[in-house]
Design goal:
2 domains; 6-stranded antiparallel β-sheet; binds fe (ii) ion; globular; alpha+beta; 3-stranded antiparallel β-sheet; Jelly Rolls; 18% strand
């Protein structure tokens, strides 16, 4: 125990984290004048993220030129995911055998535009403005969630652990199939009702434990047709995948995760985007996109 504490205190990463805790707000303030200028529509999204920690819209509202190619690759990848058995992902999701994630290499070979959509200039600008510094894309997920089984994995309430707790991070989700009250849906507790430093801290909680803090009637499920986009720092919002009493429904969704480029929890993130996947799409990337992929930093 004592040896562990000494190891933590004396490790270079431990020192970097302690210094960063103080320097991070200062760094964000100094970078503010140099952040990208957002269009009025994107400035509204940013204002919603600052105020509510969530923005929900339709994919066409984002006006990204990459969207048409994104949908074409979504359909190609759907053929890959439709009949695959669910996998045990280990770690936090060890029990969550009701989800299937398309492997990164498959996405890179059969659907590179799925990744390139998340590296569009407008999304990188928005993310940079929210983080207060250039972003990197640390995870790309095409997932299928079956509405079956117990309250496990992402069905339990949690806040995402994406970097050290004081740092900003952002997730963008696109529903790839219609999501209604009969389908697994993202459900969250509005931030002002359950602040991060409340009686529940980082970890996974059963719905009944959250209900002791905030009545279920105040939880917000996000329903919407295929193409609904949810932009949210899910390391701020308590959320889970709502599982209704309606067996055999399925949700397909895309998830993109952005953090600072010098993520201070690298050991937790290192498997989230594989080097092989990066190598497969490297030639399609411009300089900013290359610098926005987590593995580029490790490669050079
Ligand atoms: Fe989550």
């Amino acid at each position: 125990m004592a040896a562990n504490i000494i190891k933590r205190i004396s490790s270079p990463l431990g020192w970097r984290r302690r210094i960063d805790r103080v320097a991070y707000p200062l760094r964000r303030a100094l970078r503010k004048p140099f952040l990208p200028k957002l269009s009025d529509d994107y400035a509204k999204i940013l204002a919603n993220l600052e105020r509510d920690a969530i923005h929900v819209c339709r994919i066409q509202d984002l006006q990204l030129p990459e969207t048409e190619a994104f949908w074409a690759d979504v359909e190609k990848l759907k053929a890959e995911v439709r009949n695959e058995p669910s996998l045990d992902l280990g770690g936090y999701f060890a029990e969550d055998i009701y989800s299937y994630h398309v492997p990164y290499e498959t996405i890179s070979v059969k659907g590179p535009n799925f990744i390139l959509w998340a590296l569009s200039n407008q999304l990188l600008d928005l993310t940079e403005c929210y983080l207060g510094e250039p972003a990197c894309l640390i995870a790309v997920d095409y997932r299928r969630d079956l509405n079956q089984g117990a309250d496990v994995g992402n069905r339990k309430f949690h806040v995402d652990i994406l970097d050290v707790a004081w740092r900003r991070a952002l997730k963008v989700c696109v529903y790839l199939s219609d999501v209604d009250e009969n389908t697994p849906a993202l459900e969250y507790v509005p931030e002002n009702l359950l602040p991060p430093r409340s009686k529940v801290s980082r970890g996974f909680f059963y719905a009944k434990e959250i209900e002791e803090q905030v009545p279920k009637s105040k939880w917000v499920p996000v329903y919407g047709p295929k193409g609904t986009v949810i932009i949210s720092p899910l390391n701020r919002l308590w959320h889970h995948a709502r599982t209704p009493d309606c067996p055999d429904t399925t949700r397909y969704s895309a998830w993109f995760t952005y953090t600072s480029r010098d993520n201070l929890m690298p050991s937790d993130r290192k498997n989230d985007f594989s080097r092989k996947a990066f190598d497969l799409i490297e030639n399609s990337l411009n300089k900013r996109q290359r610098e926005s992929l987590w593995w580029y930093g490790l490669k050079t």
